[in-house]
Structure formats: C-alpha cells, structure tokens
Amino acid sequence: MDCLKAINTRRSIRKYKKKRIPKHLIKKLITGARNAPSAFNDQPWVFITITKQETKDRITAQKSQKSRFIKDAPLLIACCYDETKSRTKAHNLENVAIAAENILITANALGLGACYIGAFDPDYPEIEKTINKVLRLPRHVHIVCLISIGYSDEKPGKKKMRSFNEILKSETYY
Ligand SMILES: Cc1cc2nc3c(=O)[nH]c(=O)nc-3n(C[C@H](O)[C@H](O)[C@H](O)COP(=O)(O)O)c2cc1C
Fold it and tell me: Domain coordinates of the chain in residue numbers?
C-alpha cells in the first residue's frame, strides 16, 4: 500500500478475527517502529509483544470497560522507554508515541487493524503498577502505551473531523 494511503485510511480497529499474526509481520511492525525519529537518535524504546491469553487477561482486568476488547486481540505490543537509554527525560513520551504511530501505520499497510491504548492514567496509578508487575518491567523501563493488533473484523463508521479552517493557520494564529 502506498504510504499516503496507509496514513490517511488508518482507523482504530477494536474487533479482530481469531487469527494469529505471523512472526514475519510482527518483525515488520517493529521495523516500522525502530525507524522512527528520536531525540538525539537515542532510540530509548523497548517493545514487548504479548500473545499469551493469560497475560492479556491480567492486563485487561485493570483497564476500563471501554478498553477490555484488547483481551481478544491476537497481539498486544507494549511500547515502553528505557530511561537509561535517553540523555534527557524531556522527550521520552514523544519518542515512544512517534514510534507507536509508525506501528499503527505499518499495521494498516500490512492489512492489519490496530488501536492505540493510552496505557496508564496518572489518576489511576494502579493500572501502571499492574502492567509493571505483569510484564516484569525493571524500574528504569516505563510503559507509554499498548497497541492491540489483529485482522480486522469491523468496518468503523465515518469519523467526525475538525475542518482545515479550524486547524490550519497561515503565518500567525490570528
Ligand atoms: C493518546 C491516545 C490514547 C488512546 N486511548 C485509547 C483507549 O484507551 N481506548 C481506545 O479504545 N482507544 C484509544 N485511543 C484511540 C482513539 O479513540 C482514536 O484514535 C480516536 O477516536 C480517532 O479514531 P481513529 O483512530 O479511528 O481515527 C487512543 C488514542 C490516542 C492517540
């Protein structure tokens, strides 16, 4: 699929066929992620692939009802950063979020459906604690998001978009 098509047709997919994702496609997803830009080229990311049902169930137990669908995804990727690999704290979240977007676009290009899941909410620290425990994250590794991935079993409806006029300014804001 052409790159612009992969970007512009990407949608969040939350319903998946019960079909495993082959290893060579998982490698392509991570290849997309590792080619992302990062501040100072630190590449502080770490990706953990999760396919075992028990692990998915343990993670999902802590998530809100709305995000429980991830337990039925054939693949979850926990996108994390290793704070010992980046020279400044300032860009840790950005580095991983950009790599995560590359995974979403690559998934679409490969005919897979995916959804970005904000992994933790500062108001609910127990979610992060559970993920740290289940994924056995060392103290210096922190989760930024989960991505659920599978072969799509839904066609999302049209989504509301803010207009160009509203989001695009020329030279100055006013
Ligand atoms: C930072 C962030 C956090 C998100 N967290 C969740 C989530 O917890 N659960 C979920 O179902 N979707 C989540 N999403 C997906 C958004 O709901 C989705 O991108 C948005 O509704 C636009 O739809 P689209 O992805 O189909 O274009 C998240 C997306 C982003 C960027």
Answer: 3-154
